[in-house]
Amino acid sequence: MLEKDTYKTILTTPEPVLFKDKNSKFFGYAFPVLSEEDVKSNLEQLKKEHHSARHWCYAYQIGTETISYRANDDGEPNNSAGMPIYGQIQSFDVTNILIVVVRYFGGVKLGVGGLINAYKTASQMILENSTIVEKTINIDFLISFDYKNMNTVMRIIKEKQLNITHQKLEMDCQITISVRKKEAEFVFNIFNNLFEIEIKEA
């Protein structure tokens, strides 16, 4: 099986959605996140915005190869909120994303089935509202060489249409390139076989 070297995510936060059931209101939010810090700051922001809400249930998934995720029911019955939210993250196959559903209680209990449905639906609605993009999993390499080898290096970068993310061109030069995972070994070997040019993972 070919190793997967793409993943799906969102780049921007869409407009929130609203799902209502028996006077309870469920606001769905989605945020692009890269760390637990991002998760925390988005949650804090929402709690300020919706300070009178009853629950802020959420799920997130971060990472492309090593995945970390969490689902939080925030006081709702066990697995009635966080897991239905996380289920939608999985079903849309997205990562580096946080979904929060903010609930205002409407005075009528929905029961566990009603809650699962509400959290799932609000999450599905916000994902359908999001612009989901496919990105490649990249590996960064640092190429180090003397100035006199500049043309050789630049020619390969141009020929192979490699993406330079950083460069320092002085007497000794350093260029960082970002290479799609499935092409990484091939690109590494080209530079590695060259005399006087060093390449390593950045």
UniProtKB/TrEMBL annotation:
<dbReference type="GO" id="GO:0006446">
    <property type="term" value="P:regulation of translational initiation"/>
</dbReference>
<dbReference type="Pfam" id="PF01205">
    <property type="entry name" value="Impact_N"/>
</dbReference>
<feature type="domain" description="Impact N-terminal">
    <location>
        <begin position="22"/>
        <end position="126"/>
    </location>
</feature>
<comment type="similarity">
    <text>Belongs to the IMPACT family.</text>
</comment>
<dbReference type="InterPro" id="IPR036956">
    <property type="entry name" value="Impact_N_sf"/>
</dbReference>
<protein>
    <submittedName>
        <fullName>Uncharacterized protein, YigZ family</fullName>
    </submittedName>
</protein>
<dbReference type="InterPro" id="IPR020568">
    <property type="entry name" value="Ribosomal_Su5_D2-typ_SF"/>
</dbReference>
<dbReference type="GO" id="GO:0005737">
    <property type="term" value="C:cytoplasm"/>
</dbReference>
<dbReference type="InterPro" id="IPR001498">
    <property type="entry name" value="Impact_N"/>
</dbReference>
<dbReference type="InterPro" id="IPR023582">
    <property type="entry name" value="Impact"/>
</dbReference>
